[in-house]
Amino acid sequence: MEIDFVPLRPDLIRTYISVGRQAYNEHYVHLWQNGDTSPYITSSFTKNVVEREYEDPTLSLYVIQQGKLAVGILKLIPHKALDTFSSKKAFHIEKIYLLKRYSGIGVGTEALRFTERLAREMNKEVLWLDTMQNGRALSFYQKNDFVIHRASELSFPGAKASEKAMWILIKKL
Length: 173
Fold this sequence. Notes:
Elements lengths: L2 E5 L5 H16 L9 H7 L2 H9 L4 E7 L2 E9 L12 E9 L8 H15 L4 E7 L3 H8 L3 E7 L11 E8 L1
Parallel strand pairs: 4-5
Antiparallel strand pairs: 1-2, 2-3, 3-4, 5-7, 6-7
């Protein structure tokens, strides 16, 4: 299975938005009151938001492709501090969203490997990310050598109180 991580460019912005929205809604609608994911979607996957992020030199955005088919997105913040880890040492994985039919077949693992290679090339000491305390993502990350660093919480209005609990996970490099 050949997976490519294509850096976002203007002609891929629509694809990034479409795949990001679909993947998010396929996996996370249960987090939201009345299944209304719009608070998150409007903060993450509108044309204005993605164009602004594309222009932001502190972010790295990718469309994940299998062959010519877009199967997910990746949003990285290579220099983002976490607690005692300075921005020089810490690399944040903000989003790995895969279309549901491409989950569980190794695409996510390839995304983590790709990200880890980038982090190592930058001499980072730690990868970190947030994940829901409930759900399959936690076990996936733990299988890939991430450990729980501390608790966190989803802070968007409209999220169900029972679903807000998150973990910050780290992987030392």
